[in-house]
Amino acid sequence: MREDVLIFRPDQVDLTRSPLRRGISEPTYVLGAFNPGMTRLANGNLLLMVRVAEALAEPVRDEGVRAIRWTPEGYALDAHPMAGVDMTDPRQFALRAGAHRQLALTSLSWLLPVELDAAGEAILAIHYDKAIEPAASYQDYGVEDARISRIGARWFMTVCSVSAERHCTSLHSSEDGLNYRLEAMVLDHQNKDMLLFEGTVQGYYWALTRPLGEVYFAYPPDSPYAGGPSINFARSPDALHWKPVEAPGLRGRKGSSSAMKVGGGTPPILTEAGWLTLYHGVEQRETVGIYRSFWALLDRDDPSRLLRVEDETPLIEADPVLTAPIAHQMYLPTPVVFSTGMVDAGDHYLVASGEADLACRLTRIAKARFA
C-alpha cells in the first residue's frame, strides 16, 4: 500500500493572521508551507507543525535587497546594497563582502499548527492562535523545520533557530502536543536536524544531530564513506543538556548517488526490529541538489549500532504529479522531498514531508516495506 497526497499548500495560509503583521505592513506571500513536524495528539488526531516561509512581495527596492528580522518590539526590514549580494539560490542571498560566507533571507519562517483527523485525510482546524514565532535574539531570522517526538506523557519539539548570532537548535515542550513553550537553546552553531527518539534508552534521552562546517577531513581512499556532513548521536539525562556519543553515526557512502549531504528526517520510532528512522540524502545537481528519503534501523538497546542502512533505493522521491496543480508557485530548480515526521497507522506508517520546499505531503507506506 502506498498513497501520496498534498495535504496543505501555500494558498491555505491566511496571512492576515500572520505574526508578521506586527511590524510589516508591506505585501507578503507564502513562499512555502512545508517541512511539517508531525505527531499524534492525545485525542487521536494528527498534528502538523507547518513551516510557513513568508516572503516580501517586493524584496528589491531602491538598489537594495531587504531581509525580514524579528525584534522584541516587532518585525523590521534591513536593506543590503544589491551590488554586494549574490541571489543565485532562490531561497536566500549571499553577501559578497567579508572574510566568511554570510547569508540573509528575503523570507522569515514561523510555525503553524494544522490539526488533521486521525487518518490524516482531512484538515479539522488551523490553530493561528497557537502559532510559534521567534521569541529570542537567536531566532531573529526565523524558526524552521520542526520535529516532534512524544516521550512518555510529554511532547518535545526541536526547531532550527536562525540569526546573525548563531544557527542553532532550540527545544520546545508541551503537555498536550498542541500548546508549546520555548525551553532553551540546546545545540549551538550550525547543528541542524536534531531529532529526539520517541522513547528513552536505559534512562537517557537520545537524539540524532547533524553538525555542519566549512571543511571536512578526507576518509582514506579505500574507505566506503564519502567525506562531508554526517548524522551523529547524542544523549541527555533531561533533554536539555546533550553529550555527543563517540560512535560514528550515519554517513554518506561512496556507492550512493545521494551522498553529497545526509541529514536527519523523522524522529526514530521503536519497532519490534529496532529504532526506525527516515533520513535524507542529497545528489549534487545545480545549486540546491536533489533530495530523497532513505531509511535506517538502529539497535533498540544501543542505537549507535546500525542494523541496516538502506541508501540505494529511495523510499520517497519528489513527485511532479503532486505539485502539477501548483507548479506556477515552484521556485526550486531540482526535485526536493524532505521527510520530517512519521506515525504508526496500523498496518502502515504515515510519513509527513515537505514537497519542493512548497507544500506538505503525506505518504502511506506499508510496514512490510521495512522487512
TrEMBL record:
Pfam families for this protein: Glyco_hydro_130
Q: Which Gene3D superfamilies match?
A: Glycosyl hydrolase domain, family 43 (2.115.10.20)
Keywords noted in UniProt:
Glycosidase, Glycosyltransferase, Hydrolase, Transferase
GO molecular function ontology, one term from the record: hydrolase activity, acting on glycosyl bonds
Question: This protein's superkingdom?
Answer: Bacteria
Record keyword Glycosyltransferase present: yes
Q: Which InterPro entries match?
A: Glyco_hydro_beta-prop_sf, Mannoside_phosphorylase
Q: Which family does it belong to?
A: Belongs to the glycosyl hydrolase 130 family.
Q: What is this protein called?
A: Glycosidase
Organism source for this protein? Sphingomonas morindae
